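quick one before i forget lol
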Amino acid sequence: MQTGADVAAKSDHDTLFALNRDYIRSVQASDVRRFDEILADDFLCSNPDGTLVDRRAFLEQTARPVAIRNLESHDVRIRLMGDVAIIHARTSYTRPDGGAGAGRYTDVWARRGGQWLAVSAHVTRC
């Protein structure tokens, strides 16, 4: 028998799964509008080159068209800890030269005002 907590956790998991899908799609499509909706004001991102960018800089870099194609996430793991969630996943994509690319990311989400917002991202490439 499911408890209210079980149903809430499943609902949060489904919401976060959809947000993760939106996040990846928004990277590929340079969708600044969607990122503006789902990023917390204090969002920070560690880029693969080692730079740390705030929300404003992330939105600026997102506005530039990406050179990669076919970005997909795999092995998505969502860890819920109350009003915080951590998403770990692997990525695959096609590089501009046509070769295969891959990486990993870890995103941290926080429930604020009843809404899940991305507060942190860390991206690596292999």
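fyi The two ends are 43 Å apart (CA to CA).
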